[in-house]
What we know:
Blueprint: H1 3-6, E1 7-10, H2 14-19, E2 24-29, H3 35-46, E3 50-58, E4 62-65, E5 68-71, E6 75-82, E7 90-92, E8 98-100
Antiparallel strand pairs: 1-2, 2-6, 3-6, 4-5, 7-8
Amino acid sequence: xxxEDIIVAPIITEEASERIAEGKxxxxxxxxxxxxxxxxxxxxxxxxxxxxxxxxxVKGKERRVGVHTGKTSDWKKAIVTIDTNASQKTYLTKxxxxxxxxxxxxxxxxxxxxx
Length: 115
């Protein structure tokens, strides 16, 4: 799957807006997407470092219009935790020298979410 097909839309509710301060962003995602697919898509689209992905399958509700009954479609929600302290990690190599783990710097927020 392409990253644009995995992330359907951001979910902006009162509860989701409160979680943004903790670095947790909520998305509506493709029902067939796995946690690894979601992580890779968010990292590619928003250039952030994803720490954790939680997914929830939301069941559709029954709706009624007059005498006709129907059901809304099932969908999948993902809560993505990003690294808000985007700093390079250092470690000691075999000779005791310090080395940096990653040369790529990541953003600490996702742009486009309105609070």
